[in-house]
Amino acid sequence: MEECGDGPAGARVLRERLKVLAVAGDRLELAADRAAGCSCCAMRRTCGAAELAAAARPERIEVARPPGLIVAQGDEVEVTLPASRFLTVAGLAYLLPTLAVVGTAGAGMALQLSDLWVGLLCLPALALALIPLARAGRGDGLAGDFTIEAVHPGDAPVAGRCAP
Description:
Elements: E1 3-6, E2 12-24, E3 27-31, H1 36-40, H2 48-56, E4 60-64, E5 76-82, H3 83-110, H4 115-129, H5 131-136, E6 147-152
Helix pairs in contact: 3-4
Keywords: Plasmid
Organism: Cereibacter sphaeroides (strain ATCC 17025 / ATH 2.4.3)
Protein name: Ferredoxin
């Protein structure tokens, strides 16, 4: 997501312009290119996190089209995502599994278990810690939380911080 701003109710939101690949009834298929932060970063060539994200991130996102929205293939839409929702999913993906493994390892060490048993106990703890993330990703996942704020015709010039 490119930028943060205040949403309609004053809540923080993340915004990004995505290209419409297809329009099918009440659904839009959007191109999910890398966010501008990674494309402008000087360390992008050596960043392992960016490489992993690029390999794992789907190239297309399907979102619901609001009633009455007139959009065509090739247009760009400005989508928003509540920052609180993004932080919740990031916490479920990164913080909860880490805390589960560290807590389990600490408890195993406090009980003076061997390293092998501590490692074996960490595996189910990690699996259990990933269940909330899997439940959060059911259905539309984050794509269900995207809202379309604006439509930009496909022939309009793209202006951004990273544009030449």
